[in-house]
Amino acid sequence: MLRKLYDWTMSLAKTKHAPVALGAVSFTESSFFPIPPDILLIPMVVAKRQHWFIYATICTITSVLGAFVGYFIGAMLFKTIGAPILEFYGAEHNFDRFKAWYEQWGGWGILLGAVTPFPYKVLTIFSGSVGFNLVVFTIVSLIGRSLRFFLVSALIYKFGEPVRIFIEKRLGLMFTLFCVLLIGGFLAIKLVI
Question: If you placed Cys at 82, which of 13, 78, 101, 175 could pair as Cys (CB 3.0 to 4.6 Å)?
């Protein structure tokens, strides 16, 4: 089953619709979707290494645009949409702790969350709900998401074929690592806030 999923992702990565799918996943991941865009970004860069810069740019721009949706959800729709999303990620009971964390770390905390596997949508929704400065939010989101996606893309570009061979030979390990990072992001919510 894992091999079929990998083959499907690689075949999608080679299609003309891949950039649109990448943008959609990146956009929604910043506001509510649980799966990070790396799941599509990595195979796309492996499949078409020469487009690494374009794919990283698509991820960055759509992720920041999606972050504005998350911010809006937090600012205007917190009770109806934001709170249930935070509840899904286990962050709803830590609102006061998170607000104190914002007061202490501010934009640096958002920047850290934008670069790491921490579920970014939690930060975008909280940012809107506490009325975090939108200009600072935009700047740190742009820097953080750029760092993340351009670093991943550049590494895959640089080491493309060996990375593809490594992934294909160790598909189970890669899937496990992805799951560990995803779960680790959820656990980071519990530790940080």
Answer: 78
